[in-house]
Each structure stands twice: as C-alpha cells, then as structure tokens.
Design a protein that fits this description.
Blueprint lengths: L8 H5 L2 H10 L3 E4 L2 E3 L3 H8 L8 H9 L7 H8 L8 H10 L4 H22 L7 H6 L1 H10 L7 H12 L22 H15 L3
Antiparallel strand pairs: 1-2
Helix pairs in contact: 5-11, 7-9, 9-10
C-alpha cells in the first residue's frame, strides 16, 4: 500500500477493500518514510493511551503542504484546537474546560440535547420523509454547541462550515487533491480568513 491509495476515486467510492488489504498487510503498515497506518482496533487503542506519542499537526502540515502554509488561517486555527495540542498545554486548558462540565451543567446540556433532538424530529414529521443524516445528524451537534455557547442558530451553518474546514487538516487526504471531497477548498482560501475573523469575534462578543 502507499499513501496515494487513500486519495483515489476508488477509495472514496468504497474504502472497505482498502481497509481489508491494510489489515491483511500487518499490524502496522508503512506507507512512506515516517508514515505508518493501522487498521486494527487493538493497536489504535494502545497508541491512544501511550504517553510517548503526541499530535503532530504542524509537522504533518509542513510535510504535506510546505512550510509556507503554517501561518495560513486554516492551520493557525487547527493548531489552537485541543485536538492539536499536547501536554502540558493540553492538560492545562482541558482542566479549565472541564470546570464547565459539572453535574449541574451536564444536566443542562442533556436537556438542551433532548429539546433540540425533538425539534429536529418534529420538523421532519410533516413531510413524512427525510434524510436522517442531513436533516438530523449533521444539524444536531452544531445546534447543541451553538445553544451552549449562546450563538444564534442562524450562525450554525457558519459554525459547522468552519469546523468542517479546520478539521480538514486532520484528513489524511491532500486538501488540494482533485479527488478529495474537499477539493473545492484551497488551503489558502479566503473562506478560512473569514472563519479566522468571524469565529473569534463571535466568541469575544459573548465574554
């Protein structure tokens, strides 16, 4: 197997034969110098709790897109996510964040989730048909987050688009690849600049 196998039209159409090939090739498969992949749960489970390992979003971005992309808005936002941080910074920020998840707040979040779920299902009822993914699953987490952060629901599409764009940095496929689902998004797209300005402004207005 090689890295480019994960950005082909065949992979996007049906990735499962590739996963079978990956698992058959061994516990850990080398795709390129310094790049390895595994399709086995037992391996991933052990790696996720191994403190010797960390996240390398910046190093990965440099290797895939060149040194000049690191200061682009997309990658600046990605480096600020908890998903992209390592201890001790991750530990410090996570401890601050967890203060908001006490028993009282969790119950509040549960009720918010319940209410939004009911509202989305009720919206499907009159039509008597719908797409469970696009009309419910995609909308639910974004609307929950917006409600918790006191962000108007009309801004939810912007919030979701920003999240989709930034987490694209974690996608194993090249954002510039014509076969990538994100091929319409260039890593230096003005849309990322829009996110970089609008999301922080939205947060500051609610402090």
């Amino acid at each position: 197997m090689q890295y480019s196998d994960f950005s082909t039209a065949a992979f996007y159409a049906n990735p499962y034969p590739f996963y079978d090939e990956m698992r058959a090739a061994g516990a850990i498969v080398k795709l390129a110098p310094g790049l390895f992949v595994t399709g086995r749960y037992s391996i991933v489970d052990k790696l996720l709790v191994d403190r010797r390992l960390g996240k390398g979003i910046e190093a990965s971005a440099r290797a895939r897109y060149g040194d000049d992309v690191i200061d682009q808005p997309l990658f600046r936002l990605a480096r600020q996510m908890l998903l992209g941080m390592n201890p001790p910074k991750h530990t410090r920020l996570r401890s601050l964040l967890m203060r908001a998840f006490n028993a009282r707040q969790i119950e509040k979040f549960r009720q918010i989730s319940h209410d939004i779920s009911n509202r989305l299902v009720d919206a499907l009822a009159p039509a008597r048909h719908g797409d469970l993914i696009s009309d419910f699953a995609f909308l639910l987490p974004t609307q929950i987050i917006c409600t918790i952060l006191d962000v108007p629901l009309q801004d939810a599409p912007l919030f979701k688009q920003a999240g989709d764009d930034v987490t694209g940095v974690l996608d194993p496929n090249d954002l510039r690849s014509p076969t990538s689902p994100r091929s319409n998004c260039n890593v230096t797209s003005p849309r990322y600049s829009k996110h970089a300005g609008s999301i922080p402004a939205m947060i500051w207005s609610r402090r």
